[in-house]
């Protein structure tokens, strides 16, 4: 499991995956984030890295190394199963593929900080696997006032996702109100719908863009991650999970 992604460059044919150079992809992403609050692009990552991450999540699943996801920091698991049905594993830099992925996201973090003066401090991410029938109801990833998750990211790991595969991520018009103003049941205008195709990357403002995962028909693999602000206060380090 640990050494499937060679640290050397992938064969040049696989680099064709992205038509736009990386700098242009990052520039487009930052522009979207600043103006709309969200961004998504297909084939954002090199195919070889995506393949290595897919193989790693497959192996973790086979080894029974994923655990049921919670909601909130205390992991209220009973409530959680009615809201989300995925199983997760946090990335910990254990493999070349994880290190490559986290290094790329760290570069993105620095680019966003330079362009938008946000002061993103760190990145945390987990693999997620939704079994058939699973979903994640409409939610925000952080709440204003205690918003240490600033920008959410999702990278999809499903090759050849069929049009009727379900499992799309739906993005809704940003809300300004924070915890009291956000009602997950209220009507909301859809602003984007993303198929979880391998290599597609989505990011959005964690405290203002409601989103949901529609029920999936097939097993659905991804990496969800968050750029965080350092929210430690009074010498108490804010726990990340
Ligand atoms: O997998 C996705 O498309 C979104 C997952 C999500 O919203 C989350 O993990 O908070
Ligand atoms: Fe989310």
TrEMBL record:
Query: What InterPro entries does the entry give?
Result: HIF_prolyl_hydroxylases, Oxoglu/Fe-dep_dioxygenase_dom, Pro_4_hyd_alph, Pro_4_hyd_alph_FE2OG_OXY
Highest taxon listed in the record's lineage: Bacteria
The record's PROSITE patterns line, in alphabetical order, gives:
FE2OG_OXY
Residue ranges annotated for the Fe2OG dioxygenase domain, each copy included: 116-229
Q: Where is this region: Disordered?
A: 1-20
Kindly list the cofactors needed: L-ascorbate
Keyword vocabulary terms for this entry: Dioxygenase, Iron, Metal-binding, Oxidoreductase, Vitamin C
Q: What is this protein called?
A: 2OG-Fe(II) oxygenase
């Amino acid at each position: 499991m640990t050494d499937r992604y060679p640290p050397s460059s992938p064969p040049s044919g696989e680099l064709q995956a992205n038509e736009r150079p990386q700098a242009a992809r990052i520039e487009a992403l930052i522009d979207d984030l600043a103006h709309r609050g969200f961004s998504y692009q297909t084939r954002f990552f090199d195919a070889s890295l995506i393949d290595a991450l897919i193989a790693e999540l497959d192996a973790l699943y086979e080894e029974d190394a994923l655990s049921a996801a919670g909601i909130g920091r205390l992991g209220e698991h009973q409530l959680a199963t009615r809201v989300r049905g995925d199983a997760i594993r946090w990335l910990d830099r254990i493999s070349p593929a994880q290190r490559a992925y986290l290094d790329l996201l760290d570069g993105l973090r620095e680019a966003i900080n330079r362009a938008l003066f946000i002061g993103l401090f760190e990145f945390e991410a987990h693999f997620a696997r939704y079994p058939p029938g699973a979903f994640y109801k409409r939610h925000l990833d952080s709440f204003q006032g205690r918003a240490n998750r600033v920008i959410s990211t999702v990278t999809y790991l499903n090759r050849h996702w069929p049009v009727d595969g379900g499992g799309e991520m739906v993005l809704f018009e940003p809300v300004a109100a924070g915890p009291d103003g956000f009602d997950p049941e209220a009507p909301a205008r859809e602003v984007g719908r993303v198929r979880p195709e391998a290599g597609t990357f989505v990011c959005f403002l964690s405290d203002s863009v409601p989103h949901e995962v529609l029920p999936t028909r097939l097993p659905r693999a991804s990496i969800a991650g968050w750029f965080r602000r350092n929210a430690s206060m009074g010498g108490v380090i804010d726990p990340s999970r």
